[in-house]
Amino acid sequence: MSRRPVTGVVVLLYWLLVVAGLEGLTIVRADAGGSAGGGERELVALWVGTVAGVALGQLVAWLRVRAWVLVAFSMMAFWLVPALFIVGWELFGGDTTTFVLAFVPATVCAYLSLSERGALVAFWYPAVLWMLVILDRPGGAAFDARGALPFVVGLGALFVAFLRARETRRRRAGRG
After folding, report:
1. Where do the domains of the chain lie?
2. d(Cα 98, Cα 88) in Å, to the nearest integer?
3. pLDDT digits over 16-30, tens only?
4. pTM of the predicted protein model
5. Closest alpha carbon to 29 in 135, 123, 138
6. Residue 74 has pLDDT above 70, yes or no
């Protein structure tokens, strides 16, 4: 089995997609005002869960750990879930659910971002972050298509760049 090179462009574009989505969501939520402290804590849990999940997922993919090993390890590690939830509750309080709901899909999608055939599925998590930026309006304001257009174009451009980088990586590895 040949080892496929991991180009820095693929990793960089994926991180750019994720961080830009998180930053846009942070800006939209900060503009909304929200409750003092409550929204900030939820955003911190979202940021930490996403960044930790993407880092872990890409590290495991870079180490080329097989998916079946991850599934088996996850099933064996279920006995740790209550202890991890208690630690998460100490860190994030009631926003532990936000952390977990960000960490799990971020890890899976980041793992798939460096896999052979997982690029389209890997794009799901960054796209969700960007869609929250596009569709989430402060104070329940109506959707503004003209205001959302730059975000939609940016997401589309990054999507095409990500797929192109993945295809270039695949072609360089010897599969035409």
Report:
1. 12-171
2. 10
3. 999 999 998 898 877
4. 0.78
5. 138
6. yes
